[in-house]
Design brief:
- The protein is mostly beta strands.
- The chain has one domain (4-131): Beta Barrel (OB fold (Dihydrolipoamide Acetyltransferase, E2P)).
- It is 10% helix and 46% strand.
- It contains 2 helices and 8 strands.
- The longest helix is centred in the middle third of the chain and has 10 residues, at 55-64.
- The chain is globular.
Length: 139
Amino acid sequence: MNKVILMGRLTKEPEVRYTQSSNTLVCSFTLAVNRRFVRQGEERQADFINIVAWSKLGEFCQKYYHKGQQVGIIGRMQTRSWDDDQGVKHYATEVVAEEAYFAEGKKDSGASQDPFANNSGQTNDDSDFEIPANDDLPF
């Protein structure tokens, strides 16, 4: 099974391009996803996950998602590779979005044109777990 569920904040405005062969819209953006555990006295760490949304879902993301906004993405992990002009092989790992959601209300995101926002204003920031500095973890 290949299923990814993420909640994070957009690091910049979504970028849109079109495929050369079929002129299909492709929207790409990066989510900063906070790690759940924090060692006492250290700053919270985040992972930066590349997201790709195709066609109608990509149009939706382009229109309603903005830098700094907290969103939820459900999709699948995908890896791909290609050779550049010099023959060097490159690899990319990304999440192909299959569903996209708003994860905060208008007042939290500052996005005034957000017609589908969840107005609860609740976030999961309080549920994060803090690790004491003297705790010895296996990772």
